[in-house]
Specification:
heterodimer; A: 174 residues; alpha+beta; B: 171 residues; Aminopeptidase; acyltransferase (chain A); N-acetyltransferase activity (chain A)
């Protein structure tokens, strides 16, 4: 299938937001609004100001291949630079998504390859991301690309302190 | 041990930061994995677009460590992003030298990081912990941390440079 991969611009935030919401719906969360707190204007501010918190790339198809609802922007990846205290610069792929009707055409792989290229160009020595343990097709896809499961192999667990827990920590409460 | 200060790391601290990174890696039995140099830390932490930020714990000279160090703890962190909830603070490394534990230094570091997270409107602070590291897990669980790997099934994946190059060359 014909498609291009390019850097996301401010104007793409509307479509990125659309795809983030449909991703949430696909994951069958009952109340999307409970899960997704970020709106189009937040993406614009957080991704396209002087010091962006993330970068984006978009997969776009020509007009004659547009989706059933008329969209030409059919996939995206959000990534940012992180740092390993052992190995230095790293790139983290936060989101990788292709609309269901456009899957199986190597668009996902092309998006991931682009993030890898950009990461290597920035001097990164690794690409990190997370996958849910029930997502067998994704797990297989990534393992076939030469990725390894740090949680499984080294026993590293992803931890979080959020909301009230974060507030209490900030106040010094135990 | 009475006093310590927490302050933003400066370029002159890179030697101590690397020493502490290696000490922590040694504890995790991963010392041979540390290939970072002082030069990397200087370039990546103190340029126009730093890849990381660092807080250090500094004690007065009269309380220096057995091997004469006054920088006796550190935390390395950076900002990340979740497109559902926004900005996050990611804690990459967090360590206090063994002889300085039990004085509340670790708690103060975590408090300072949390305050920074709240001040910069981060929704959450994320980090990883090895499942065998019971003292750390207890430390964090006591403070309300959730284990996303256990509770939601999140697994951290990594691709190294060799496989990244392979992937980009295949396109």
């Amino acid at each position: 299938m014909e498609f291009t991969i390019r850097a996301a611009t401010l104007e793409d935030c509307k479509d990125i937001s659309r795809m983030i919401l449909s991703r949430c719906e696909l994951a069958e969360y009952e109340k999307v609004s409970d899960q997704v707190k970020i709106a189009q204007r937040d993406l614009e501010q957080d991704g396209f100001s002087k010091n962006p918190f993330f970068h984006g790339i978009i997969a776009e198809v020509p007009e004659h291949l547009k989706s059933k609802e008329g969209h030409t922007k059919v996939g995206y990846s959000l990534y940012f630079y992180t740092y390993s205290s052992w190995k230095g610069r790293a790139v983290y792929m936060e989101d990788l998504y292709v609309m269901p009707e456009f899957r199986g055409k190597c668009i996902g792989k092309a998006l991931m390859s682009k993030v890898s290229q950009l990461g290597l160009a920035a001097g990164c020595t690794q690409l990190n991301f997370t996958v849910l343990d029930w997502n067998k097709s994704s797990l297989d896809f990534y393992l076939k690309l030469g990725c390894w499961d740090v949680t499984s192999d080294l026993g590293y667990h992803c931890m979080r302190c959020e909301g009230d827990v974060l507030e209490h920590l900030a106040q010094g409460d135990l | 041990m009475a006093s310590f200060i927490l302050r933003k790391a400066e370029p002159k601290d890179v030697s101590d930061i690397l020493r502490l990174i290696k000490e922590l890696a040694k504890f995790e039995e991963m010392e041979d994995q540390v290939i970072l140099t002082e030069k990397d830390l200087l370039e990546d932490g103190f340029g126009d677009h730093p890849f990381y930020h660092c807080i250090v714990a500094d004690v007065p000279k009269q309380h220096q460590s057995a091997d004469s160090h006054v920088i006796i703890g550190f935390a390395m962190y950076y900002f990340t992003y979740d497109p559902w909830i926004g900005k996050l603070l990611y804690l990459e490394d967090f360590y206090v030298m063994k002889e300085f534990r039990g004085f509340g230094i670790g708690s103060e570091i975590l408090k300072k990081l949390s305050q920074m997270a709240v001040r910069t409107r981060c929704s959450s602070m994320h980090f990883i912990v090895a499942e065998w590291n019971k003292p750390s897990i207890d430390f964090y669980k006591r403070r309300g941390a959730s284990d996303l790997s256990l509770e939601e099934g999140w697994r951290l994946f990594k691709i190294d440079k060799q496989n990244l190059l392979k992937m980009t060359n295949e396109e």
